[in-house]
Each structure stands twice: as C-alpha cells, then as structure tokens.
Amino acid sequence: MKFTTPEFIDEHPIAEGFIKKYGKNMGKMVYECNVRIYWRTVRAREQNMTCLLCSGEMTFERGHKNSVSLEHLIPKSLGGESEPHNYGASCERCNNKRGSESIESFVKKRLTTA
Ligand SMILES: [Zn+2]
Fold first, then answer.
1. Structure pTM?
2. What are the tens digits of pLDDT across the range 50-102?
C-alpha cells in the first residue's frame, strides 16, 4: 500500500483514527509519519520558513533542495530524543549534509568553508 503524505499538517494527528483505518501496525506508522509532518510544519512556521542551519528560505513543497525537513537539534546518534523539544526545521539539503554532526560543528564548518 502506498501513502501520499501531505506537505504540511496544521493539527496534531490522533492515533486512533489511523489505527482504525489502516490496522494497528500500519496505522501506527502512518500516524507517526503524520506527527513528524505536524512538527515540521510547526517548527518551520516558528522559524519563519527559514532553515535552522543555513538561514535559507524553505518551502513546504516536496522534492526541492529547500523543502522543509524535520531536524533533530541533538542528533539521534548523540542521544537526542525523537520528541518535540528536540525538533527544529531545516532544508532538505542541510539535513542530508549534516548527518549526525552537532549543529555547532555543522554551522562552524559551513562558515569556514563557504
Ligand atoms: Zn539549509
């Protein structure tokens, strides 16, 4: 089964609806995906559609280098949690480039090599 995910979500998703619609496992997966889109939406708007890492303008449209993506402020590999307090929004390009680097290190490197 293929899902098309919305570009942004304005209200926090509720798990029950997805589980009812897609069953327990798939429903949970779709729900979690929607939660990530919700937080991506919230953080991007809080940041005025500006990337956390390069300060470039982001878009909700998918498939661009500057498409909004959900960023872990502290990378998961460094013990950062997948919780709202650890979420920010960055552009797709920065998110892909950063990997598991800390924000400080990534931004510093960007400033010295730019
Ligand atoms: Zn960026």
1. 0.90
2. 999 999 999 999 999 999 999 999 999 899 999 999 999 999 999 999 988 99
CA of 109 to the centre of ligand 1 (A): 13
H or E segment and range at residue 104: helix 103-113
Output the CATH code of domain 15-113.
1.10.30
For residue 18, the CA-to-ligand 1 centroid distance in Å is 32
CA of 45 relative to ligand 1 center, distance in Å: 15
Counting beta carbons within 10 angstroms of the beta carbon of residue 85, is it exposed (0 to 12), middle (13 to 18) or buried (19 or more)? exposed
CA of 23 to the centre of ligand 1 (A): 36
Kindly list the domain boundaries of the chain, sorted by start residue.
Answer: 15-113
